[in-house]
Amino acid sequence: MARVPLVVLTLAAALARADYMDHFATRDDVGPRKVPALGDVTVLVMPVEVKGFPPIDRARLERFFSPDDDEGFVRYFQVASLSRYRPRVVVGPTIAYAQCPLPAAQFPGCRVARGDVNAFSAGIDLLREAVRRTDEAGVDFTQFDRTGRAGAPDRWADGVMLLTNVPFGGIAFPIAFFNRGDNLAGQSGGPLVADGVRIPHVAVAGDTDVHVMVHEFGHLLGLTDLYDESGRYAGLHLSFMGSWAYDPKIVLPDAETRYRLRWANVLQAQGTQRYRLEPVEASGQVVRVGVGDEYFLVENRGPGRFDQGLPTRGLAVFHVDRAVESVTPQGRFRKLGAREGDFVNRLLDCVNCDAWHPYVRLVQADGAFDLEADRRFVAEDDLFRDGDRLLDDESRTVRSPRQPINGSNRYSGEPSGFLLDDVRVRDDGAIDVTITAPTSGQCEERLCDEGEGCAPTACGPPPPRTGCAAAPGLALLGLLLLEQGLGRRQRR
Questions:
Q1: pTM confidence score
Q2: Are 393 and 409 in contact (CB under 8 A)?
Q3: Is the separation of the CB atoms in 435 and 424 below 8 Å?
Q4: Predicted confidence band at 358 (pLDDT cuts at 50, 70, 90)?
Q5: How far apart are CA 351 and CA 262, in angstroms?
Q6: What is the DSSP string of 257-304?
Q7: Contact at 8 Å (CB) between 43 and 160?
């Protein structure tokens, strides 16, 4: 998402409602602040074509947004969500302009530079015009309100996108936050309204780049950027909200995103257990170690229908800290808080801008800290594969560029109780691993009250078997496996 100029910060600080790009810090604002991420939805793409730029290829556009494209928009979100999110996309009529609809003095060549304050007022006018012309062309906007937080139509759009052929980097634009003019329903300010359906934000991509749109639509789902806006390093790898290059090899969501959107089958770790993790693309399996705001997530990543850029398969380990804070001119604030307008601060001082203490960090198996130093991601080195281990660091050193100590410690330096050992990548794509977590207090935390993804599918090892089935040799076998694992190398 494009950086927002500082001039809007005073407006942002004045409001205190829920945000639209909070990575699901709040869950009860689906509709006015974010689009639904579960169930059957219908979303709209408005193509805007300006003469003098490469014309929009409608056939390519319609295919990418159809369910028939195995590597397209619809199939991506179905796979990433375990089919818990089922989008249908309608490509609206092409909105044609004989010349650039933006003021030529402010946007020479119709190019919109990142962070250009002029783009806000002009952008709102263009979005308003696009919705109006799409409505006048006969598109019924009520079809884009199939579901909401309660699973029924709620008069909020399920999602609206604008794809243009002019040079534009991409942004998720919160119309309701910035609009002070016509709302298309006889009133001023707030979301645009068409056929009684309110549109609070629109995902925008330029150069007819459909892959940028996948990322920008993630913002409408409530997700924040996980790359480093400051450019000091790439940000989070293995995430379509992170350092993905917007190429056809779309990467799957990271485990934290999948967990927060309820697109995962979470296995909460407690005690020591041997897991067999199937590829996350098909299974949605994520092992969570720890509770509260700081924890670790483990999943099986490798090449498939998506993640095609990965040359090998291994375990991705993510260190998550939802309590990450930053100091701004307005004072210290919690980045994942729910104030409307905080998204502005997160664009200027993003949640993953600190390579050594981001919101989500990829723990690298080789312990070389290449990603923190802005060096290349190498799957063979950074994923946990045969023989790799991750242990607590007994020195309790706070990790930093001067003290790059690999381990499973918390950011405070305190041990987390998380051990990962004896990784085995199987020929069938599954990965076996022994994970140790704290032995109590891990099983009660829930994301929400009810529904898929609200609670772990399992927590801790199964209860011990009794009777004839409890062969005495099983305990000895467990000890031998543990001894074998401890004899293997640990990457530090």
A1: 0.90
A2: yes
A3: no
A4: very high
A5: 21
A6: HHHHTT-SEEEE--SEEEEEEPPHHHH-EEEEE--TTEEEEEEEE--S
A7: yes
